[in-house]
Design goal:
Distance between the termini: 92 Å
Strand content: 35-45%
CATH topology of the largest domain: OB fold (Dihydrolipoamide Acetyltransferase, E2P)
Largest sheet: 5 strands, mixed, barrel
CATH class of the largest domain: Mainly Beta
CATH superfamily of the largest domain: Nucleic acid-binding proteins
Order of helices and strands: EEEEEHHEEHEEEHEEHEEEEEH
Number of domains: 3
Strand order of the largest sheet: 3-4-5-7-6
Radius of gyration: 30 Å
Number of helices: 6
Shape: elongated
């Protein structure tokens, strides 16, 4: 912002304003800027560390844009923060990636009990455990956090295909999702089926209201409701079906990414054919 002079007095831009200046000197933990006619500014502490990698690329005399934080700090210098143009461009590319619904390879670098960390465009982001695919989600008894953490550690160094779920440059927040990628894959697979198809399914879990299954050799889940298991009276589903068992089933409904199947329907057909 240009200075305004009235009666030989320089009107200072307000705190939070951005002004241009030239690099005077680079030190290990501080960057000095010539903000003539206002004086000399300094970028230090957290503000220096946040832009350290960017500062390394800058040469003495380079013009930069800085944000005014304090016009007179304890050292009598102008306290500032550097506007990281590279980071702004990175956030812009991230915005475009989300808009285009791109699938991106995320190299997992860190882990905590809540999920995984990795970077896209040199911006560190978070992949919550709740946004992991079925194959990567840590299956532990009673949701034990320590056991979840141990399972997640095995993913460090792995590349996981993700989409951008949410981001906020102002809060330096970037959230990834593997579930969104899995959802698209499932949608593509389900698109190959239609109601009435007979397919092989593997029983993965038996519950009070029916049986969950995997369709053929895919990661797509389906449900056989208890009312579609058999014409015979059922006291316990486990008396008729076993987890890990493979059976033929008929697709009776497809609703978005949910598939309902029937064993009973094929049982009824078999009875009719024998008459």
């Amino acid at each position: 912002m240009d200075s305004l002079k009235k009666d030989n007095v320089i009107s200072l831009p307000s705190i939070g304003s951005f002004v241009g200046g030239f690099i005077l000197e680079k030190k290990e933990r501080a960057l000095y800027i010539d903000l003539s006619p206002y004086g000399t500014g300094i970028i230090q502490g957290v503000n220096y560390l946040e832009t350290k990698s960017y500062i390394k690329k800058l040469e003495k005399g380079t013009k930069v844009l800085v944000k005014i934080l304090d016009w007179n700090n304890e050292e009598g210098l102008i306290e500032m923060a550097l506007q990281n143009l590279e980071k702004e461009k990175a956030w812009k590319r991230i915005k475009e990636m989300q808009k285009e619904d791109l699938t991106l390879p995320l190299l997992i670098s860190e882990v905590n009990a809540g999920g995984l960390m990795g970077s896209i465009e040199n911006i560190k982001g978070f992949l919550p455990a709740s946004q992991l695919s079925t194959s990567h989600y840590p299956k532990v008894n009673e949701g034990n956090k320590n056991k979840i953490l141990e399972k997640l550690k095995f993913l460090i160094g792995e590349k996981i295909q993700v989409k951008i779920l949410d981001f906020d440059p102002a809060a330096n927040k970037l959230i990834f999702s593997e579930k969104l990628v899995e959802r698209d894959k499932i949608k593509d697979i389900i698109g190959k089926y239609k109601i009435g198809d007979k397919i092989q399914v593997k029983i993965t879990k038996i519950v009070d209201f029916g049986a969950f299954v995997k369709l053929e050799d895919t990661e797509v889940d389906g449900l056989v409701h208890i009312s579609e298991i058999s014409n015979k009276s059922i006291d316990r589903i486990g008396d008729i079906l076993k987890e890990g068992e493979t059976k033929e089933a008929k697709i009776i409904n497809i609703d978005d990414n949910k598939i309902s199947l029937s064993f009973k329907n094929l049982e009824e057909k078999s009875i009719k054919e024998t008459k």
